[in-house]
Design goal:
It is built from 14 helices and 13 strands. It has helices spanning 3-19, 21-27, 29-43, 56-66, 83-96, 113-119, 142-152, 171-174, 200-203, 240-256, 258-276, 304-312, 327-333, 349-362; strands at 50-53, 74-78, 99-103, 126-130, 155-159, 178-182, 194-198, 216-220, 223-226, 282-284, 295-299, 319-321, 338-341. The longest helix has 19 residues, at 258-276. The protein starts with a helix and ends with a helix. It binds pyridoxal-5'-phosphate. The site of pyridoxal-5'-phosphate (PLP) has 14 residues, from helix 4.
Length: 363
């Protein structure tokens, strides 16, 4: 997190400690409310199409579980689908009898748009894909999928958790009906807060699975009235300090410019890929024709967890990826456990070189 983000969170907590949580929320109401507009601007949406929730998974689940899917309804997803989403599909297979169908990949390993078009010859209830998956540097063709969804009148849920903050995102251009994302990844905001976009025309058609008196006012003893905006997917109590942090992260990212962020982080990642290829036994496991700022790699004979720990001791922060996050992709490509580096715009070429040197020194 940038310093301004950390300060925004801490300042709000300090204010809560001084004047109480309700007082702090009321004193900072304007700033906290402006976060909806900042998220909407980031996504090319309208303020009333945004719900702020606990994380990307909750955002995604709020949309998915509110869909009245029934026995035999086809849900078309992708091979790189994120585990949390797939587990939710499986639950609704068990509970509601929906049918999961996986869109095949093209020769490069991204969603095969032509294959999707063929699948849409039969009615489908939902297209639900991950734009940028946990591993593989893949950027799925979200906007092309959106065109097909619109052409065939099929609802389209997009997991943009790893795309938001590293790339330019425009929900109207993509043509999705729902988009979920988080503060904690490329946006450099705090953990524990995420957001959901719902296209305005759909809001009144969807009743959230869980309701409270914020999502729906208790207007008579035996009657409630749902909110008319996307906030019907929220509830009353919120982490306002995290919301303040998200707001600061959004302002910070916009000041740099999402196009600048995308260009710079993707260039650094490309440079990392090239340098990794100079390490004997190293393999970069990219998928798709376009590669983002997530670099997944393995090195023969190297245990990823041990390497991550060794690098952390030198203040070089990378992570690991395993089958538990993207099972279908791991199985289809017979992937090993991998290391994962996600250089961001604030990194330098020198740091990329240091990381590669540190890897070489450890093997
Ligand atoms: C593609 C993708 N979608 C969704 C999520 C879930 O995000 P969160 O854990 O913040 O809810 C992740 C997290 O790694 C992810 O990689």
């Amino acid at each position: 997190m940038p310093r301004v983000v950390v300060d925004a969170v801490i300042d709000h907590i300090n204010l809560e400690a001084r004047i109480g949580g309700y007082g702090a929320a009321s004193e900072k109401a304007e700033m906290l409310d402006a976060v909806y507009n900042s998220v909407a601007t980031l996504l090319g949406a309208k303020e009333n199409e945004i719900a702020l929730v606990e994380n990307a998974t909750v955002a995604w689940c709020q949309a998915f579980y509110a869909l009245p899917l029934k026995k035999g309804d086809r849900v078309l997803t992708c091979q790189a689908e994120y585990a949390a989403n797939y587990v939710a599909y499986l639950q609704r297979v068990k509970r509601d009898g929906i049918v999961i169908e996986v869109i095949p990949n093209d020769a490069k390993g991204a969603i095969d748009v032509a294959a999707l078009e063929k699948m849409l010859a039969k009615p489908a209830a939902l297209i639900s894909i991950t734009w940028v998956p946990t591993n593989g540097g893949l950027v799925n063709p979200a906007a092309e999928v959106g065109k097909l969804a619109q052409k065939h009148g099929v609802l389209y849920l997009l997991d943009a958790c790893q795309a938001v903050g590293q790339m330019v995102v425009d929900v109207r251009e993509i043509g999705c009906d729902f988009l979920s994302a988080t503060s904690r990844k490329f946006l450099r905001g705090p953990r524990g807060i995420g957001f959901l976009y719902i296209r305005k025309a759909l809001i009144h058609t969807m009743e959230p699975v869980v309701l409270d008196h914020f999502a729906a006012a208790w207007v008579e003893t035996n009657r409630y009235e749902l909110r008319h905006d996307a906030r019907r997917f929220e509830n009353w109590e919120n982490a306002y300090a995290l919301r303040a942090g998200l707001g600061a992260a959004l302002t910070y990212a916009q000041e740099i410019g999402l196009d600048n962020i995308q260009k710079r982080s993707w260039e650094l990642a490309q440079s990392l890929r090239e340098q990794l290829n100079t390490i004997v036994g190293a393999r970069v496991h990219d998928a798709g024709g376009q590669h983002c700022a997530i670099v997944s790699f393995s090195i023969e004979g190297v245990n990823p967890q041990a390497m991550v720990a060794a690098l952390r001791a030198q203040n070089i922060i990378i992570g690991t990826s395993g089958i538990e996050s993207t099972r279908l992709d791991y199985q289809a490509r017979s992937l090993p456990d991998m290391m994962r580096s996600a250089p961001h715009y604030f990194n330098t070429q020198n740091e990329i070189e240091q990381m590669v040197a540190a890897l070489k020194a450890q093997i």
